Amino acid sequence: MATTAGRLDSTIISYLKKDLLLREGHFAFRSGRHSKVLLDRDRLLADSQAASRMGYALAKAFFTAKIDTVAAPSIWGAGLAQWVAYFLEPRAKIVYATPLAEGGWRIAPNLHDLIRDRRVLLIDNLMISGETIQRFDAQVSELGGEVLGIGTLWAGAATVVRGHEVFGLFNDLYPAYESEDCPLCGASDVPAETVHY
Hints:
This protein is α/β, with parallel strands linked by helices.
């Protein structure tokens, strides 16, 4: 359902690199995939100018989908979901999962009506293994929401989750490779830097 319209321009890429929010190199993620980019997931959305531009680019990709609710499974995704919802027309509502003391997360019962019988876009800042978004997609579907798509800044895992194509804003510029297919591994004697997420 997403289009390729709205990809980031070189200005925002340069801005992210300057502030070390985006670093190029050779990185190995927990998912086992490799990439030449590392996005600082903790600080990436701390800059409202950068966050708003990335939110706009994601919203533009789903602009014709008539989204009712933007839902995020993580605290990192919640900030981005706010920007995406703001730039959709009409403006969408936002639902986010809250962490539980015993581990895991849930969507608060008072937010269920924003999902039930609604057209939902799932947003997270980064999708590393795809496990979190799979569980979240299942929960949104169980609550009666119609998931129309999944958007993220960068997807380092599968490009399809539970039948939904994943739109990764940075993936055209910085693809994620299976370790055995990684062109970076053979191009340098420097080993991949291991990333904890």
